[in-house]
Please model this.
Amino acid sequence: MSDYLNTTTTDWYKQRVIGVLVCVLTAFAVLTIRLFYLQIIEGEELRRLSESNSIRLQDIDPPRGLIFDRTNTLIVDNRPSFDLGIIVKDAKPVEETIEKLSQYTGIPAAAMMDKIKTSNKLPAFKPILLKSDIGRNALAAIETHKFDLPGVVVNIQPLRHYIFKQSASHLLGYLGEINPTELAREAFVDYKAGDLIGKFGVEKTYEPFLRGRRGGRQVEVNATGQVVRVLKTVEGHPGKNLYLTIDHRIQQKAEELLEGQAGAVAAIDPNSGAVLALASSPSFDQNIFVGGLARDDWNMLLTNPYHPMENKSIQGEYPPGSTYKIVTAIAGLEEGVLDETTTVHCPGQYRFGDRIFRCWKKGGHGKVDLIQAIEQSCDVYFYQAGQNVGVDRLAWYAKACGLGSPAGINLSHEAKGLIPTAAWKKRRFGIDWQRGETLSIAIGQGYNLTTPLQMAVLTGAVANGGRRYKPIIMNKIQTADGEMVVENKSEMIGQLPVSAKTLDLVRIGLRQVVAGEKGTARGSRVEGIDISGKTGTSQVVGRKKNSDEEEEERADHLKAHAWFVAYAPSNNPQIAVAVIVEHGEHGSSAAAPIAREVIKTYLLDQKSIKEQVG
Amino acid sequence: MFDRRPEQYFDWGLLAVTLLVATIGFLTLYSAVSAGATTPAKAFYIKQLIWYLVGLVCMVITILFNYKMMDRHANVIYVVCIVLLICVLFFGKYVGGSRRWLALGPISLQPSEMVKVGVIIILARYYAKSASTSGLTIRELCKPVIMIMIPFALIVKQPDLGTAMLIVLIAGSMTMFVKIQRRSLIYIMISGLISVPLVWSFLKGYQKQRILTFLNPDSDPLGTGYHIIQSKIAIGSGMLTGKGYLKGTQNALSFLPEQHTDFIFSVLAEEWGFIGAIALLVLLMILVAWGLNVAHSCRDPFGTILSVGVTATIFWQVFVNIGMTMGLMPVVGVPLPLVSYGGSSVITSMICIGILMNVSMRRFTID
Model:
């Protein structure tokens, strides 16, 4: 029965609708009252505010995070830039004001008028930038004549400052104005047009930490655009400070040694993977990117034949040359095609089918065993080893040693190099692998490509007993107040595919390269430091190993690249280095001395630090 | 029985009010995009004109079939809406901090706009069957709450707090309209009060910040807080008679944010003053009252509740949007129906009015 009583009827609904109508009318009454209040009661005051456009917003840009090296030396900071601007609406008459401004500061009036003309799309109450970074003298002149210059504003902006000019430019990177594609991305939601963001290197990788949070002020201004009072302020937060693993002294030493040549140095701590130096030459001055790069400067950087913008230590791909014999030796020992007693007679050449493959030493090395072959870099010994291992097994070992894929450093554009296999060649060129090509591969020529950083990581792993570490460049990130945000730990990414015995043999060979009577790098011995290493020379064009060209004078750009990979001290390695000098011809003469000096600088520093602590 | 043809009862009055509001909207939009233009203004008003035409076509389509079809196909309509919302989360275009748009070839849709209609239809169907004069019990409310929460959660995720809030307001209005048992109402209020701090404790910092800004624009003096100040200055500076058409200075100097969408009322009030603003307000009030009149004269519960639902949609958008420009309401992206720029909004509003016309035309037909 109650169901019947409770059944809704048309009349019941009609009543409910009337109730709704009452609510709606009340709501409209509220809106009307509010409208009346704003337009009629407050109208005059609000009209006044609208006429002077007096409530404005000003940005407070927070300073970007500082960058330190491993010794806590400041390497990147910010300096104030005084940016001259004008608010056209407040600066009537504009021409006269600009004339005066030009008189006081010496900035040509025509240039400033041009800026105003090209910026006429901006809302009239927003300052138009006349000239950035005007310097303290011009600032003082403007401050003195402030009341003579209506609408003229000076905005203080923090500017990026790279303290060691031209040093670690590739590693640190640079800033640039955010572009529309970046702006549209989810990661850049807090950014607005005109903001600077890291475009390259560490500045790019750690952008989210280095950038602080923007603040701002709501201000009321008077008729000439001067701030009368600050209504509300939201403080900005400065960016986080970055502590790199780089040692700026080694970095600078490496750069000094590369001066005038094209090449790269990668140095790491073999026990943690921490990158101690990552140098690439020629370099560029990042300070020219600050505040906008002139077109001429940019063109010069782009057209320079030595590619200063390329970070050769991670982007440069070179045939590893004889440094690759480390891999061939490992593969030969592990696959059992040779052992410490295996000897080969080197007559200076190696006949394979109807082809002759030469050893770098014309007269030959005579009878050599594995240790001697590494020490003297005998090509014939490794031709044979490579031939017996075969291209695909060799490639497996190379890849297990970390070659052919990026070393994994936290920087963009890292190259992965190339380790060829028979299948790869078929895929790439549609041609079957020629067995003779395996011989070139075995001594690091042919299709093989590696980056200096990959070679440094490999050398580090040989040095530390087989542990492959991911190269890291950041030690820690802290807030401006010193609070820890991120603490980086070393990360092992693999093991060399070797037994302890194999590694010992290779290490003895590498030690002989420097220490041995016939070692190819015996010229780079240092008193008191026991260095192990391997030289390398990689042919640039043609790979005409059989031609007699070598004796002739070659054009510079056809000269071979010089390699040296090394670690020291031999029994307790603290540093592993890979050096490449483009067209440096001989690893022993062009690259090894650089590695030696880098090692010396680091180990002596370490020693002095220890002594100080002790 | 009478056999009256629905065409005879076409609601010409409702059409007239609609076209009048749209005309005012278009004129204001023209001013909003051409004064102090930094963007190609022509593209805006031509596009909007196309949207009006598309909206009219949609309105006509909505009128053609009997609204009772909606009753029968409510579930399908609802599921399609939910699927579209899920698509937005996965394939939606990312614009200005949220994912709301679904690109279909050259045009972009905002499914959350269409979802409002879907929710209204399915609620109308449910309430028409379960309503009783003693009001809904808690048990009877479970189903509609789920129906509302699914689209609500999906829209919050985008995030589009404005539309999410609107859906709750519309659904809440419909529910209150069919009456809730007094005891149930008290329970709901108490559990609501308890759950607020609970939910709050689960939110992340930025989510809390977003809600705080939403409720109190002053806590964001550089963003919405500033916009509200500028909007109030624009409206107030219109005074009694306004600054004149195309002469709004706040508008021309781009002081107003989104002056062609969310803050279009500020442009109108600045240029036409109290007289112009009241005129639009009265027209919108007539539109809402007309909708309620349709609900009042309909003899079928589904039709009545449906009409109340679409009228609530128009009403809440008007109230929230205009309230926001005058600093009475939280700042959310709720467009002013038929006035603000935007295809999805215009089309949805036209469909809502089409539904009202449909019900109005067929109130005498008996099936």
